Amino acid sequence: MNRFYGTGVAMVTPFQPDGEVDYPALERLINHLIDGGVEYLVSLGTTGESATLSKDEKKQVFAFTAKTVNKRVALVAGIAGNNTLEVIAEIKAFDTTGYDAILSASPHYNKPTQEGIYQHYKAIAEVSPLPVILYNVPSRTGSSVSADTTVRLAKDFKNIIGIKEASGNFDLMNQLMRDKPEEFLLISGDDPITLPMIAMGAVGVISVIGNALPRQLSDLVRVCLTGDFKAALPANYSLIEFTRLMFAEGSPAGVKTALKQLNICGDTLRLPLVQVSESTAAKIKEQIGKI
């Protein structure tokens, strides 16, 4: 599980201007991230606009990503949904070649009870050929995975190895850190609070801004993991405005704008997502010049 200590990046999916997947740009992005020193990559999470890709496109992106990464870093597949049977079928059909874990967000829209969330993940854990990382992101799903439910899952299923926690609820995280099995991983899912989360016991981050700034972010996270938070503060402060801009008009619109400025990929998104405004794009360009 040490493979998931440090910086993971939830990769964007580059698109050509006509909306088709841009595989040369995806290759550039992967190499940009690995050269930037990140510890692992996440393919087709929320940041990858997975909700707008067809099953065939997902299969092709997963395969291309695994081939390009070529085991240079650990690799996680985002497989989630609000139809448990469909998620199970997708996991059973998934080609695990080159992958080390599955990241699965709790069901969106349905707003299940805690028992429903538990049963959803229980069904996933029982069929998954890879370790599972839970993902709690109530701002997107409409419901939160409680600390009690996370701890229950961690204790009942050894292949549920951690949680990407993006609730921003430090009371929940305090309870989780107190009660979880020692080996269970708390991972920040929220760039702005990565430093304080590591201070309370998180082992790193699965990041959005790391798409654009892998070296700066991974260096910051490594310093935090040594426990020298005073030394980490200047780097943390230097990223505050850039991070704010990445989410000012939605993700991944902001970070795709940054990646366009860095000549990694274009800023095309698939509807219902749209590009950031010209004024925000100008601010992002200015921030990149300062970092």
Q: What would you note in describing this structure?
A:
Its EC number is 4.3.3.7. Homotetramer; dimer of dimers. It catalyses: L-aspartate 4-semialdehyde + pyruvate = (2S,4S)-4-hydroxy-2,3,4,5-tetrahydrodipicolinate + H2O + H(+). Helix 7 (170-179) links the parallel strand 6 (160-165) and strand 7. Helix 6 (147-156) runs parallel beside helix 7 and helix 9 (214-225) packs antiparallel against helix 10 (229-238). This protein has helices spanning 23-35, 55-69, 84-93, 114-127, 138-141, 147-156, 170-179, 194-199, 214-225, 229-238, 240-247, 253-261, 278-290; strands spanning 6-10, 40-43, 74-78, 101-105, 132-136, 160-165, 185-188, 204-207. Strands 7-6-5-4-3-2-1-8 form an eight-stranded parallel beta sheet. By secondary structure, the protein is α/β, with parallel strands linked by helices. It starts with 5 loop residues before the first strand and ends with a helix. The protein has 13 helices and eight strands. It has one domain (2-227): Aldolase class I (TIM Barrel), CATH 3.20.20. It is globular, with a radius of gyration of 18 Å.
